[in-house]
Amino acid sequence: MAFEQDGIKQVDKEELKELLKSEVEKPIIIDVRELEEYEEAHIPGLPLIPMGTIPTVIDQLDKDQSYLFVCRSGGRSQNVAMYLKNQGFKDVTNYNGGMLAWDGEVKTGAEWVVKEVKELNL
């Protein structure tokens, strides 16, 4: 069940699963872990933009777009969401619990490592 923490909406694994299955417009879901973590196991179809590179691509992100961030435990993704909110982004959400709580399908390898934000097709 969604709740708020430090002004950031939080979703749990069941809500994330529903979002991933949804046919309606959904947020852009981004994994913000490091490449090694992502290669080990990630949610299929999610792009990787490591937390440390977010400041270098922030100008390419649409402040009116909805974003949901995923990391290992929910801490880094929460920090990314708070950072973007402080930069004027209106709709940012954190996946609370992160990959440690994820029990859905996973893939290995570098499926979608974003080098430039235009690869997200915004």
UniProtKB/TrEMBL annotation:
Source species, domain of life: Bacteria
Gene3D superfamilies cross-referenced by the UniProt entry: Rhodanese-like domain (3.40.250.10)
Pfam families recorded: Rhodanese (PF00581)
CDD domains in the cross-refs: RHOD
Rhodanese domain segment(s): 23-111
PANTHER family on file: FAD-DEPENDENT OXIDOREDUCTASE (PTHR43031), SULFURTRANSFERASE YTWF-RELATED (PTHR43031:SF17)
Protein name: Rhodanese-like domain-containing protein
Species of origin: Halalkalibacter alkalisediminis
